[in-house]
Amino acid sequence: MTLLALEHVGKRYVDGPHERPLLNDVSLDLAPGELAAVWGLRRSGRSTLLRVAAGIERPDTGVVRFDGRDLVDHGEDVLGEGIGYVQKALRGAEAQSVLEEVMVCLLARGISRAAAHARACTALERTGSAQCAALAPRQLDKAESVRVALARTLVLSPRVLVVDEPVNGVDLHERDGILLLLRSLADEGVAVLASTGQSTGLSGADRALALSDGELRGSPSQQLAPVLALRRSA
Q1: What is the DSSP track for 40-77?
Q2: How many Å apart are CA 72 and CA 59, to the nearest integer?
Q3: Whole-angstrom Cα distance, residue 115 to residue 74?
Q4: What is the mean pLDDT of residues 142-146?
Q5: What span, in angstroms and rounded, lies between the C-alpha atoms of 182 and 147?
Q6: Out of 85-89, 126-130, 151-155, which region has the weakest mean confidence (pLDDT)?
Q7: Edge-to-edge, what's the strand order for the sheet holding 191-196?
Q8: Which CATH number fits domain 4-224: 1.20.840.10, 3.40.50.300, 3.20.20.70, 2.60.40.2250?
Q9: What number is the average pLDDT over the span 218-233?
Q10: CB-based burial of residue 14 (10 Å sphere; 0-12 exposed, 13-18 middle, 19+ buried)?
């Protein structure tokens, strides 16, 4: 069963008279419970690919579908609900705690404060960041910020989780824990699409995809040849 599908997607970057192709006839299917990681060099278009997949940016050509629905027509209904896009930057007010940061999107949807509090605590626990609940967002280190950002997205129970470079800037000893967290979320049935600029960010993925010259390839490129056993052992 395909949950998220990109069909012959094209996207170009235009800067005055200059135009550069970022995505060229890209197709991708993502099923529930699958973790797909997209590798690419800087300026390869991997972040653009994820924003298009999440419905944040429209493709110039092609179609993106979530559960069979075209995101151009239904993106506003899907983003934040069926599709969760993880924004790692935490922009809480100065007096706002991490717990309140996770609660805010629920409160904005009319959920009672008590219910929002309970769901936020559950999400923080699930991502291993419950100990950060009383802290201010500015007090978090890189790894804690990623975990809290994941909690803030998971609190809405998305079926697809899109996260751009989840381990970028994270200390080496913290990376494996975050990648294992994404793997476990996929094992629970969430479809996860992540990007990375480093081969170490592919650990645990069901599929490792390489984006280069606007083309998405399903087999490792030369730079990724040493990366083996990407799929978790049974």
Answers
A1: --TTSSHHHHHHHHHTSS--SEEEEEETTEEHHHHHHH
A2: 9
A3: 27
A4: 94
A5: 10
A6: 85-89
A7: 83-86, 160-164, 191-196, 35-39, 207-212, 215-217
A8: 3.40.50.300
A9: 40
A10: exposed
What is the C-alpha separation between 79 and 53, in angstroms, rounded? 10
Quick one: tokens of 59? 């493709």
- Domain limits, the chain: 4-224
Which structure tokens are listed for 138?
């500015």
Compute the residue count for the chain: 234
Structure tokens at 43: 């300026």
Q: Give the 3-state secondary structure of residue 14.
A: strand
- Kindly list the strands in the beta sheet with 18-30, ordered across the sheet, starting from the edge strand earlier in the chain: 18-30, 4-15, 61-66, 69-70
Distance CA 1, CA 170 (A): 34
Long-range contacts of 99-108 (CB under 8 A, 24+ apart): 99/124, 99/133, 99/134, 101/137, 101/148, 101/152, 102/148, 102/151, 102/152, 102/155, 103/155, 105/80, 105/152, 105/155, 105/156, 106/155, 106/156
Within 8 A by CB and 6+ apart from 81, the residues are 156, 158
CA–CA gap between residue 23 and residue 38 (Å, rounded): 13
Between the two ends of the chain, the Cα-to-Cα distance in Å is 21
Give Dmax (Cα) for the chain: 54
pLDDT digits (tens, 9 = 90+) for 22-77: 899 999 999 999 999 999 888 888 999 999 999 999 999 999 999 998 988 765 56
Cα distances (Å, whole numbers) of residue 215 to 21, 23, 139: 10, 6, 39
* pTM exceeds 0.70, yes or no: yes
